[in-house]
Amino acid sequence: MATPDSDMDKIRLKRLAKLQSSRSTPVEQAQKQTEPSPAGPSEIFRPVLEQQKPTTTTTPTTPPTSITPSRSFIQKQGIEGYPENASPAKKAKPAEVVAQPPQTPPSPSVKKAPEDWEDKALGIIFRISVHEQPANGHYQLKALREELESEGERMDAYNAIPVRLSTGILDQAILSVCSSSHLKIPPFDHLLASWKRAVNYQRNLRPIDKGDENKITILAEAKRMALCYAQYCITMPEMFESVDASVRLEDKLLLDNDEEGGLPLEFFNALIGQFEEDPMMEEAFAAAIPRLSQNLNHVDFSTNYKPYLSALGRIISSKPLAKLFYESPAFLPEDVTGNTIETNTLLGPFFKLSPLQPKVLDLYFSGFKGRTQVALNDTKNALQLSLKVFQEQLHNIIFTLIRVSPEARLKVLDFFATTMNLNVKRTALQVDSSTVASDGFMLNITAILIKISTPFIDTNLTKIGKAEVEYFRRNPRLKIDTETKINADESASEEYYSNQIAGENNFISEIFFLTTAALHYGLGAAIASHEQLARDISEMEKHLQSMAAERVKWINTPQLVIFDRQYERLRVRLDKGQGYLYGLEIILCDNNAQTGTLLFLRFLSAWILRLVSNGRDYPEKPMSLPLNDKPYDAFAYLPEYFLETIGLIYGFVGRYLPGIVISNQVEELLTFCITFLGSTTYIRNPHLKSKLVEILYYGIQPNRSRPNGILGDAINGHQFALQHLMHSLMNFYIEIESQYYQKFTVRYHISEIIKKMWDNHSYRKKLEMESKTNPDFFIRFVALLLNDVTYVMDHSLTALVDINRLQHDLEESTTLSQQDRTEKEKELVKAEREAQSYVTLGNETVAMLRLFTAALANAFVQPEIVHRLAGMLDYNLNSLVGPKCSTLKVRNPEKYGFAPKILVQHFADVYLNLKHKPAFIEAIAKDGRSYRPEIFESLLNLLARFELKSKEERVEIAKMAADVEAAKRMEEEGEEELGDIPDEFLDPLMCTLMEDPVILPASKVTIDRDTIKTHLLSDPKDPFNRAPLKIEEVVPNTELKERITAFIREKRRIRVANVDGDKPSVDHDQMEVDVDADSAYVY
Question: What distance in Å separates the CA atoms of residue 971 and residue 975, rounded to the nearest whole number?
C-alpha cells in the first residue's frame, strides 16, 4: 500500500519529468517561439526546459544558431535529482542587483531587432539582465552570462553574437534569480509581480505591435513561465534550494485581486485550474483555508477584519475552493462544544466578529459613563452601521455557499443546527458563559438566518404552508428533547416524536425552524441578558454611591487601602457592565435589523394561528373563537419557545422600538394575543400568556409618532378585538391567580389595558353582556379584583406606615448607634421598595374598581361578593381618613406614587356608584370590623375641605351614611331578638347564622352556601381539607335549615308575645313569608 510520502514523491517526480521535456532541433525551438501557447491549463504550466543548449531568439524566417552548453555545466549546475541526460533550467550562481545610471534610450529612428525587443521585454518583466551594464534595479545574472559565453560563444567574420535574454533561457534565468539571496522579496512575490508586469506590458503595446504574433507569443510565454514557477513555490518550494520559497496562501488570499501582492483573478483561477492535474496544489489550498479561519480568531471587530471577509468571499465564489471549504474536516469538527463552535470551525470566527467583543467594548466604551449623550449616540451609530455592512456581506457569502451545491447547503444547515443544539443552555436561569457561545456570535447567527428566510416571507403569507409542521418528526437536525412542550408532558412528548414519518424536510422548513430556534437561543437570550444586566447595573450604582458616602469612615485607618481596592474593583466591574450594555443596545436597538425580525415573527404568529384555527385554514379564512376544546397535537407538542419568543421580542420592541411596527403586523399580533389569552386549555404555562399581556400593555403606551401606541388604534377598531378582547383579558385575569409572583404585575397590565379600552362604548356593552350571559365567570372576576384591592392596599398602606416611622426615627433620634442606624436604613430601603410596587398596583386596582362599579353596579351587590366589597371599602377608608391617617404621612409621597387625595376620591366614587343598592347599604351596616359612623363624617369633611367632590355628591354620601345608620340599628335589634344562637347554626368560617346550610362532600362540614361560594371564587378547594371542590358538588342540609327556620320563628314569637302582651296573636305563616322575601335581614 502506498504511503503519503511515496505519493508525494511520485508527484514530485512527475513535475521533474515536465522539466525534462526536449525538442530535437534549434529550428523547432524557434518555430515554437513564434506559435501561440495552447490555452489549456496543463499547457500553461508546462515549462520550456528542453534538452538543448540555450539560444538567442531569431526571427521566424531565419533558423537560430544554437549555443551548446558543456556536459560539465549540466552536472555542475543541474538541480539535484534531475536525470543526467536532462537539460533542466540551470541553477546558476546567485544573481546580483546592480545599480546603474539609466541608459540612454535608443534613437527612435533606429529600428530594434526582434532579439533586442525580446531581451528588453523579458528584462523589464522579470527585472533581470545578462548584460554587463544592466538597467537600474535589475538583477544581473553574471554566472548565467559567463556560462553562456564560455560554452557557446561563436563569431562570424565581422561580429560576435551578443548574449541576450530569450524565452529559450528563461528557465535558467528564473531559477537563477529566484534562488538568489540577493532577491529582496520572496520568490513567489517576484514571480507574481513579473506576471503582472507581463500583463501590463502586453496591454500597453503600441497598436502596431499588438498585431505582431511573435511579440504576443513571447509575452504569453513570459506569463506562463512566471505562473509555472509561482506554482512550484506553492507546491515544491524546495526547488529553490538557497532560499525559503514557501508561500503562505492564507496571507495571499487576504489581499484584494488588484492590491500589491494580491492574486489577480486570472492568476488565481489558473492556480485553481491545476487541482485535477496537481493534487498538491489542491492540498495547499485545503491547508490554507483552516489557517485563514484560525488567524481570524486573533482579529476583532475594531481591527481590520475586512480582508478576511473578502478572502472568504473569494473562496466561496470559486466552486473548487468552496468544495474544499465545506468538505474540510475543520468545517464542523465532531468534538466542538457550545463555546468552541465559534473558534474551532471554519465559519465560527467570522460569526464571532461583533461589537460585543471585549477589546471593542474597552476601546469604545471604557469610561464612557461621564461623556455626553451625543458622543455616546455617535459611537453607537457608527458601530451599528459597521455591523450592518458586515452582516450584509456575511449573508451574501453564506447565501452563495448555500447555492454552490446540494452538499454545501446540507453542510451549512448542519452548522446552524449544531450551533443551536450545543447552546440550549443559553436560556437557562443560571448560565456558565464558558460552556456556551457568546451573545455576539449567536446574534450574528440569528441575523443571517433571518436574512436567508426573507425570500419566503411575503406580505400575503403565500408560502406559509411550505413550513411543514411535521419537521420534528422527519429526522430533524434540531433537537428538542430537553425543551418543555406547549401542552404535553415529557413522556407524552417522547412517545409522540418517537413515531417518525417518512420524507425529507424542504429547505423552507429547515430555515423556518432554525430561525425560530435562533431567535430563542440568540436574540431572546440576549434580550434576557440585557434586562438582567440593566438591573445589576442599577444595583451596582447604588452600592457604589453608598460606598463613596462611607469612605470618610475609613480615613486614617489601615482598612482604607482595602476599602479603596474594593471600591475600584466594583467601579471597574460597573464600567465593563455598562460597556457591555451599550454593546447589546447597538445590536438589539437596531431599527433595520429588528424590522426584519418582526417580519419573521409575523410569519411565525400566522403559522401558529394556522395550527390552532378550527379549520386549520388561517390566514385564508379569518380567525374565529372559541377554539376547539382540545388543541391539535401538532401544536400541543411544539416547544414552548415558539410562543415565548414572540412574547419576549415583541415586548422588547414595544418598550424600545415601537416605531418600527407596521399595520399588518399589528393585526396579526392582536389576533394572536386575543386567541391564546382567551383559550384556557391551549397553553399550560401562565408565564407564556403573561408575555402576551405584556405585548398589549406596551402596545398601548403612547410614543412620538403614535399617541395611542402601536396597538391603540387597532384595539379600538379591529372587529376581532371588539368581539373578544374583553373576555380574553378577564379570562387570564382569573387564570393567573395561582401564580403569586406574577399575578399582580399581570393584573396591573390588564387594568391599564382596560382603562385604555374604557372610552370605547363597544367594550362596555361587551362587559355588560358578559355579566348577564356568563354571571359565574363575571362574579369570579370581580371577586379576584376585590381580593387584589384588599391585598395591595393593605401592603401599600403598611409600607407607608413603616416609612413614616423609620423616617421619623432616623431624622429625630440622636441616640441611635451606628449599627442601629444602618439597620434602620436597610429597613427603610426595603419599605420604600415595597411601597413603590404596591402603591402603584393599588392605584390601578382601585381605579378599575371605580370604573366597573359605575358601569355594572348590580354585579357588585351579589350575595357572594357584596359583604367582602363593603368590608374592604370600610377598612381602607378608615385607614385613609380615620384617626390613624397621620401615620401615612411620608417625605416625598410622589416618590412612591402615593396620592392620598386621588385615592380618597376614587373610594368616594365607589360608594357613590353603589349608594342606591340596599344590599350594599346593608353590607356596610353588618361590617362589624371596620364600619364606624365617624369615618363618613371625616370623609365628608375632607371632601369639602379640599373640594374633591361637588356639594351635590357630598349630600348623596351623607344620605347614604344615614341609610347605613338606620340599617345598623335594625341589624342590632335583630341580633337582640335572636339572643344566643346555637353553635351548630353558625357558619364555621364567618360565625354568622346560616341561611342556606350545605354539606361539603369531602370534609362533611356544614357551611352556609354564600360563604362557600365566596370562598370558591378565590380558591377552588375545600377550606377544611384542601380537596378540589365545585359549588355544584355541595349537598343541601335540609334538616338543619328547617331547624334554623324553626329557631328564628320561635324567637320572633317570643319577642312578639313580650311586646304585644294581650294583643292578638301574630300570623306566623305571613311572618315567615316576610322573612324569606327579604333575605338581607335575618330575625
Answer: 6
Instruction: Please state the φ and ψ torsions of residue 373, each to the nearest 5 degrees.
Output: -65, -35
79-102 mean pLDDT: 41
CA distance 749 to 697: 6
**What is the spatial distance between Cα 861 and Cα 874, in angstroms, rounded to a whole number?**
15
Q: Are 178 and 126 a contacting pair, CB within 8 Å?
A: no
Alpha-carbon distances, residue 799 vs 7, 879, 954 (angstroms): 85, 13, 30
d(CA 210, CA 421): 62
Distance CA 401, CA 359 (A): 30
How far, in Å, CA of 75 to CA of 733, rounded? Answer: 99
Residues paired with residue 139 on neighbouring β-strands, in sequence order: 97, 128
Kind plus residue range of the DSSP H or E element containing 471: none
Continuous H helices in 97-141: 114-126
pLDDT (0 to 100) of residue 181: 83
Is residue 355 a contact partner of residue 302, using CB atoms and an 8 Å limit? no
With residues binned 3-state (H G I as helix, E B as strand, rest as coil), the percentages for the chain, rounded to 5, are 65, 0, 35
Tens-place pLDDT, residues 715-744:
998 999 999 999 999 999 999 988 888 899
d(CA 1036, CA 1040): 9
Helix (H) or strand (E) holding 999: strand 997-999
- State how far the Cα of 1017 lies from the Cα of 782, in Å rounded to an integer: 9
The pLDDT of residue 75: 34
Average pLDDT, the chain: 84
C-alpha cell recorded at residue 210: 499588438
Tens-place pLDDT, residues 365-424 = 988 776 788 989 999 999 999 999 999 999 999 999 999 999 999 999 999 999 999 999
Residue of 851, 847, 623 whose CA lies nearest to 721: 623
Question: Cell 421619623 maps to which residue?
Answer: 808
The answer to whether 277 and 41 have CB atoms below 8 angstroms apart is yes
Cα-Cα-Cα-Cα torsion 1010, 1011, 1016, 1018, nearest 10 degrees, comes to: 120
Cis? peptide before 1036, omega within 30° of 0: no
Residue 350's SS3 state is: helix
Those residues whose C-beta lies under 8 Å from the C-beta of residue 470, and which sit 6 or more positions away, are 501, 503, 634
What is the Cα–Cα distance from 1080 to 370, expressed in whole angstroms?
68
Is the CA virtual torsion 894, 896, 901, 903 positive or negative?
positive
Question: For 818-834, what is the HEC assignment?
Answer: HHHHHHHHHHHHHHHHH
Q: What is the pLDDT of residues 980-1015, one digit of tens each?
A: 888 888 889 888 888 889 999 989 999 988 888 878
* Rounded Cα–Cα distance for residues 726 and 753 (Å): 10
Is the model's pLDDT at 3 over the cut of 70?
A: no
Enter the C-alpha cell of residue 471: 419537521
CA–CA distance, 131 with 629 (Å, rounded to integer)? 98
- The pLDDT score that the predictor gives to residue 574 is 93
Instruction: Tell me the one-letter amino acid at 468.
Output: E
The C-alpha R_g of the chain, in whole angstroms, comes to 45
* The Cα angle at residue 820 between residues 816 and 826, in degrees rounded to 5: 125
- Do residues 310 and 256 make contact, with C-beta atoms less than 8 angstroms apart? yes
Task: Tell me which range, 317-326, 703-712, 967-976, is most confidently predicted by mean pLDDT.
Answer: 317-326
**308 has a pLDDT exceeding 90:** yes
Q: How does pLDDT run across 430-447, given as a tens digit for each residue?
A: 889 899 999 999 999 999
Whole-angstrom Cα distance, residue 1023 to residue 93?
Answer: 107
List the end-to-end C-alpha distance of the chain, in Å, as a whole number: 112
Closest CA to 770 of 762, 778, 759: 778
DSSP bridge pairs for 998: 1007, 1036
- Asked whether the CA dihedral 43, 44, 50, 55 is positive or negative, the reply is positive
Burial group, residue 498, by CB count within 10 angstroms (0-12, 13-18, 19+): exposed
Q: Is 135 helix (H, G, I), strand (E, B) or coil?
A: coil
